[in-house]
Design goal:
The chain folds into two domains: 164 residues; 98 residues, 3-layer Sandwich (Rieske Iron-sulfur Protein), CATH 2.102.10. It is α+β, with helices and mostly antiparallel strands. The longest helix is centred in the middle third of the chain and has 29 residues. Helix 6 packs antiparallel against helix 7. It has seven helices and ten strands. A hairpin with a 5-residue loop joins strand 7 and strand 8.
Length: 283
């Protein structure tokens, strides 16, 4: 496993991949820009990213097809072929959600993600060829293609795990913040004028404060999607938009208006006491 980890680390430093990754990521970003498309592919209404959910389908189907090809015998051939076809069908939406998520990455994660996608596309191509060979009556060749495709699938899966668990791609970046449950003073009331917003600290946790129509509104300032600074984002129509990837949250309660975020922003109650604005985590 240490060898695989070192391989992934080398990919992170392989700057030559940027010449391919950057234009592809820009092209994917343009395709997924419409809000309905973005929300659907991101899993915004699911509560966590959609891509990891879908990956189980082709991985499960193709794993079982390899098992049946290996030990199932002639009676299992129709089931093995069906599983190969099911894996192909489910790999397409899985790839679409993965490309959507990958388009938000940069640097080391983007390089690893490009190779991850390449390995999975290779697996899909080999399984399509495997299915065609099986239907043409060349089952031995079809099985061989499936085995090679399964190897590519395992390689892609390892890199996908590296992205999620080593590079923290598409995890909730507010999960380990300390959100104060007690009223905590953060700034003098006189320092936040109507229409202004400001980044403050509450128990060492960054908080975005806004004053709109006389009300003070407060959200976590670190975007839950990829850690972007919401205090540098655009505030309009009761919402704040992350400057990094466009996730939009309602200032009133942190709910998601537009993805790619899938976790709402931490929201805070506010009050003014002794000339100080105080906040506490909304229960």
């Amino acid at each position: 496993m240490a060898v695989l980890h070192q391989f992934a680390r080398r990919l992170e430093r392989l700057g030559a991949l940027d010449s391919v990754a950057a234009p592809v990521a820009r092209a994917v970003g343009r395709v997924v820009r419409p809000r309905p498309v973005r929300n659907l592919l991101s899993g915004t209404n699911l509560g966590h990213p959609l891509h990891p959910v879908l990956t189980d389908l082709p991985i499960g189907a193709w794993t079982m097809s390899v098992l049946l090809d290996t030990v199932g015998g002639r009676s299992a051939e129709p089931a093995a072929d069906l599983l190969v076809a099911a894996g192909i069908a489910t790999a397409v939406p899985t790839a679409a959600t993965g490309l959507n998520d990958w388009s938000d990455t940069y640097g080391e994660a983007r390089r690893v993600g490009l190779v991850h996608a390449g390995a999975n596309v290779t697996a899909l191509t080999l399984y399509v060829a495997s299915l065609l060979a099986r239907r043409a009556g060349n089952r031995r060749f079809g099985k061989a293609l499936g085995m090679v495709g399964f190897g590519a699938l395992l390689a892609g899966g390892y890199l996908g795990g590296h992205l999620a668990y080593v590079k923290a791609v598409n995890v909730n970046h507010t999960a380990f913040e300390d959100h104060p449950a007690e009223w905590t003073p953060v700034i003098a009331d006189s320092e936040l004028r109507e229409g202004e917003h400001r980044r403050v600290l509450a128990a060492d946790t960054p908080v975005l404060l806004c004053r709109e129509a006389g009300d003070v509104l407060a959200l976590g300032s670190t975007c839950s999607h990829m850690g972007g600074p919401l205090d540098e984002g655009k505030i309009d129509d009761g919402c704040v938009t992350c400057p990094w990837h466009g996730s939009t949250f309602a200032l009133a309660d942190g709910h998601i208006v537009r993805g790619p975020a899938t976790t709402p922003q931490p929201s805070y109650e506010t009050r003014v006491r002794d000339g100080q604005i105080e906040v506490r985590a909304r229960q």
